[in-house]
Amino acid sequence: MQGGVFQERALTMSVRKDPDGRWRYRKTVTLPDGTKDRISGTPKHENTRIAAEEAERAHIEQMLHPPAPAPQKVEVPTVATFATKFLESIEIKNRDASYRTMETQFRCHILPHLGHLTLDEVSYGLVEDWKVTLANKPLARRKRVEGAEPEKLSARWVNECMMSLHTCLKAACKRGLIATVPEFEWLPVPAPEFDFLTFEEAERLIDDRAIDEADREWRTMLVVALRTGMRQGELMALHWEDVDLGGARIIVKCSAYKNRAGTWVIGPTKTGKIREVPLSGLALQALTAHQHQRGPLVFCASDGRMFRRNETYAPLNRALARAGLRSIGWHCLRHTFASHLVMRGARLKAVQELLGHANILMTMRYSHLAPEVSRDAVRLLDRPVNPESLAKNLPNFPGHAVN
């Protein structure tokens, strides 16, 4: 039935006065889908014919345009309840180390303060108050020196806890549990300091004449670390099939890490990307002499198994002691590789690719080691200007006339 015909038939009044004196409407209405429905009623306020007709008209109009159903109210879970689901998602898409860090942040710093709140109760003010609480929280596991101020959580760790909460709230927003995520204001964090060996110190550390026969294989690992910048886990997981001695290069495909069961396993690199690192002459020579038949790993125990991380500390310490150097860790050798490259004029973009940094900002920490780059850039302004070259570079700039 067409809408106009229905409208005409629906609005035909059927109003009469009952024996009790009450005006009433009764009518059978045929709806657009062909179904019939009988309606009746009386006016609510005035007992008149006009009022009954108005009531009938309103009743039919309601049948024509019924109100939209009210949206069901979504039950907003607490931060603690949603955190369980959120961490399950993090667990399957992040490395074990990243998951353990985030789980620790929720268990120790987020849930004790905010876990009882529903997600929509987490406001800018509450986040700010929680941030101040964290920034003033003393480290529980550090021994206090009598009379000294207790050591507190670092600004970097506070920001990482805030980032975990922010990521959790963004996930809740995507699920439609909350409408918006409150604004977060991060604490200022100073640029991280790092140590590295001088050129002379690095040479002393890998001086072949000072290496004991028992540590000769460890010297190869030290040389490769200093000349490739590979992470400690990448060195532990390096396979011979990824070492191209003929092409003088290493394809970095994997890294060793400890899973939640406490077992050292091999997985993808930290960034999940594969990179190629050329071998210097010294590194190529050391690896060529290091070849063995104990198994697929380049650096391994006598039975071919992968080293555990704690097994790599003593050989490094012995080499440092022989060279008369301060105590450093394996990661310092990675800093040394990058620092020496920058100090010898390597471009930061090339250093980023060799180190496998996710973005250039991580590599910029070494930029201060090459002040001559900035000096040379400024000295370009002292060169005489070639008018023809300048005209080619400024063709679309009005007002830049070159005489």
Instruction: Tell me the Rg in angstroms.
Output: 37 Å
Tally of helical segments:
16
Ends: how far apart? 83 Å
What is the helix fraction of residues, given as a range? 40-55%
Mean pLDDT over the residues: 86
Task: Name the strands of the widest sheet in spatial order.
Answer: 1-2-3
What's the domain count? 3
- Count the strands? 8
CATH T-level topology of the largest domain: hpI Integrase, Chain A
State which percent range the strand residues make up: 5-15%
Give the key terms.
single chain, 403 residues, mainly alpha, hpI Integrase, Chain A, three-stranded antiparallel β-sheet, 16 helices, 8 strands, 44% helix, disordered N terminus
Account of the 3D structure:
Strand 1 and strand 2 form a beta hairpin. The N terminus is likely disordered. By secondary structure, this protein is mainly α. 44% of the residues lie in helices and 9% in strands. It is elongated. It folds into 3 domains: 62 residues, no CATH class; 89 residues; 174 residues, hpI Integrase, Chain A (Orthogonal Bundle), CATH 1.10.443.
